[in-house]
């Protein structure tokens, strides 16, 4: 099984926002360990919908290979951060979440229907949520929202759906490498998927660029019955 590594997406997290006009640039700021930040857009008005779906990237790679393909999609919980804490007049958070869940379901289902061997939900904000809210409350909210998406699939379909979590690497830095998996996994395992994929630190390597170093990670996979 192969994947395109999401190299053709404009962003692994915000590809569904391509072409949308109801966004502002001053959304949630994500800090990284080296001091740099990334900033998500902010939704300015409803309704929310996807401007692009992952199936277009699946179709592109399937034209190049006969090997089974795993397609990644962004989690509903990540995109839930687009909704501002101050709210949006005439468009409640719950209405937004209902629209978001419907779009996230369509994103996964289109990939399964167009021949993806499996679909991987990118849930990089799982570890980050414990940094933002050490009580675990935000993580519980994220997992519950993602399960709202997953409940639209049969048990058999969920065996082909997985979730991936990692420390969030960007420019040789991470946003939550210091968050212990022991705090994450008990809640993460409540997600109703057939497989869990996480990145675990392996070793440091020299990149050869300006003497910088980057962490390398090995993948650990667990499988479930997707109950």
Can you tell me about this structure?
- The strands form four sheets. This protein has a five-stranded mixed beta sheet.
- It has one domain (15-223).
- Helices cover 30% and strands 23% of the residues.
- The longest helix has 21 residues, at 93-113.
- A hairpin with a 6-residue loop joins strand 10 and strand 11.
- It contains seven helices and eleven strands.
- It is of the alpha/beta class and 227 residues long.
- Helix 3 (93-113) crosses helix 5 (137-150) and helix 4 (125-132) runs antiparallel to helix 5.
List keywords for this structure.
single chain; 227 residues; five-stranded mixed beta sheet; two-stranded antiparallel ribbon
Quick structural summary:
This protein has 227 residues and is an alpha/beta fold. It has 7 helices and 11 strands. The strands form 4 sheets. Strands 5-6-7-10-11 form a 5-stranded mixed sheet. A two-stranded antiparallel ribbon has the order 1-4.
Task: Write down the Rg.
Answer: 17 Å
Q: Hey, roughly how much beta strand do the residues contain? A: 15-25%
Counted beta strands: 11
Mean pLDDT: 87
SSE string: EEEEHEHHEHHHEEEHEE
End-to-end gap: 24 Å
Helix content: 25-40%
Largest beta sheet, briefly? 5 strands, mixed
Number of domains: 1
The poorly predicted ranges are 203-218
Task: Record the strand order, biggest sheet.
Answer: 5-6-7-10-11
Based on helices, strands and strand pairing, what is the structural class?
alpha/beta
* Tally of contiguous helical segments: 7
Categorize the overall geometry: globular
